[in-house]
Every structure is written in C-alpha cells, then in structure tokens.
Fold:
Amino acid sequence: MGQGAAVEAAIGRLCERMGDRLSRNASVRETHSHGEDAYPRQLADAVLFCESTDDVAFALWICSELGAAVIPFGAGTSLEGHITPVQGGIVLDLSRMQRVLAVNAADMDCRVEAGVTRQRLNQELRDQGLFFSVDPGGEATIGGMCATRASGTNTIRYGTIRDNVLSLQVVTPSGAIVETGRRVRKSAMGYDLTSLFIGSEGTLGVVTEVQLKLHGIPETSEVVLCQFDRLNDAVDCVLMILQQGLIVARAELLDEVQMAASIAYSGLQDLSCLATIIFEFSGSIAMTQESVAVARAIAAEAGATVVRHSKSAADNAVLWKARHHALWAAKALRPDHQPMITDAIVPISNLPAAVAAARNEVEASGLTAPILGHVGDGNFHTIILVPPVSDGWLRARRLDEAIVHHALGLGGSASGEHGVGLGKREFLVQQFGASGIDLMRSLKTGLDPKGIMNPGKLFLN
Structure:
C-alpha cells in the first residue's frame, strides 16, 4: 500500500472512533504545517486532536498497521522545522492534554500531561512555593520541550529539560504504552530510556505524560545589567564572574544591534545601544547581596561603562524586557524580513572566539543579524533577518552554516537547544561520525521499523 492510500485508510479508521476530533479542514491543516521557523510550509492530510494517552496509542496502532506517517504536535513553537509534515500524513495534536495530574510538594516533583505549558504549570505551583525551572521562551508545551531537549535562560543554574525530568510515559510506534522510569532521583536499572526519548524529536514515539523535578521559589532575585563598549569585553565579563564561583541564575547577552532594537521596541530609552549582559542572582537575601556586590566589581574591572542594579520584581521585569522581547524587537528592525534564528554552543572558554567569529561572518554577509544568547552556558543565537529577495534564504542559510562551522571547530555543537529537525541534519554526521549515525539509525529502525514517526527529520536520507 502506498503512503497516500495508507494515510486515507488510517483516516477512515480513526474517523470511526474519533469523529470530529479528526479534521481535514484546510485552515487547521495550515496551522499545523509549520512551527516558528522559516522553512517552507507543507500540509498534512489530517489533524487528530488527542485527549488522552489511549487516544495516542490507538492512533499509533492504526497508523503502524497501515504504514501511515505520524507527526506529533504540541504548541508549534519549535524553530528547526521539527513539525513540518514533509511527507504529509496525520498530525497528532496533544494540546488538549492539559491536566496537571499530581503535585508532590514533599518530594518536589509533579506529573503532567504533555500538552501542559510551562506557564500554566508555574501558575498552579506558585501557591506551594515551587516552580518548574526550564524556560525556553514562548508558550511551549512540556511534551514538546522534552521532544526537542529544550533549555533556555535558567540553564546555567537549574539545567536543561533533560536534567529536570524523572520519567516519561511514551507511546511507541506500535501503540504500546511505556513508562521509562520512576519518581526517584536516580536509578541504576537497565538502559536510560528517559534520556533516549528526550531530544528524539517525535521520531521514536510520542511523549504523553512527564514526571518533572521542581524547585523552591528563591527568597529574592536581583538583576545586574552591565553594558560595554566592546562585545568581547561583555563576553569576558561572564567568564570572569563564573570563575569566581558565584551562583548565577541567568546570564544573557545582547549585542549592540539587538540592544538598539530592544530599546526602540520596548521603550527602554534610559539604556544605551551597547553590548549588554543581564545577570540575575537569586537565593537568600544575604547570598544574593554578596553575589551582586562581587559581580558589580568584576564588571567594572572588565570595562563596563554602565552598571545598573535592580532589587524589586517590577524593576527586574523592566530590565528583562530587552531580552524577553528580543525576537519581536529584531523583527521590528526589518518588518518585511523573515527571522531565521541560529543556535550554536561551545565550551564556555571558547565563547569569546565563537561570538567574535559570528560577528565577522555577519558583517561579511551584509545581512542584519543581532547576536544574543544564554552565554552562561556557552550557547548563543543570531537572529538573521532574511531579506525578501530571490537569494535571501540562500544568503541566510550560508551565514547560519558559517556560524555553526566555527562553533564545531571550537569543540562545540551545531545546536545547544533548538534541535535538529530539518535545519541541522547536515551537521549530525560532523558531530557524531558515520558510526554514530549508524547507531542512531539502528535505534530508529528497531523502534520504528516502518518509518512512520515524523519522517524526513534528523537524518538527511
């Protein structure tokens, strides 16, 4: 049976059980044809809105039996073409699976369905003095964050999603429901199935429930914003502060181009268009005050021309506007351009060289591309604004590739948090070699012998 016939047969079987929760509406399919990326949009044949793990299991069983392609979908916020249905098929939308199933305050963990967003989870946790730490930005779902191995601004202190998941409930391509672990903080039993599925980008199965680690809400948080005449001085300042052993919650970089955009977009006229680092320190009042004092002294020594210190939550929010609204601010620089967000990471000691190389490549390209990132862990981004001309996409891709090649040459990775999807497939071999790719393919074939799970992703062919 060909793919088209297999999909049509699967749609017919699913309609019998799911009724109007399976949609072939053109606008629904278009909404599910892309993420927040610049890759060409492609329509699936149908979208199925799942409301339980049993729904997912039934859908995968049917699609496996018939050989129909399946694309898991959370909130559509991914950035590397992960959810584009490049071969058509059936999208499984998990956004209706929004229950917080259990909160164990004494153990500082919780269990949620895959469609719960981090914002909604933290709203429910706030009154218990707990929070979920992984903050990739946007309205990402927990299941989607697991699929793409998300991280974000809090990684330097609390780790990535991988570090904050205790176990997963996963539906395999055959429709089997698997628990990958227990609520315990460590286990030495068998293969690490939890880590296998985190970052698998919907190519091995569908995450339906997640057991998460939680953290106590800090007593206080204070922000120190430092501005520098030279971008390299800003990056060097981060390294100096980290080497002092200070407990930094966040360390975010914005170059002068991004700051100019953020000042205009967010109304921050009291700041300067200079390379900027925003530090956040949190914990007890005494510990935070001591960290802030040391950080301010180091920033001055590193050449900061502006140092602002904020103590209140309201003032913190004002200073963080520059970073939280960075993408929208960059887009406002060139409203007729489409953003392409690069993602590279290097060992922290090589960060100054990587950022300098990225700046040189941007200038050589002639494109507008602000630089920003989570420099506390060596991860940085460039928002390439793709001009609406015939070769605009090609020029942007070449710039992205050049930045990644520099990062790989410095011992880094082609992606720190965005994942592979469609955009980073060519770099997978460079990082892992042919033997590493063969091993990945054997895992894929063993779990998904018919190749129905998110086809066309991760591997070039």
Observations:
- The mean pLDDT is 94.
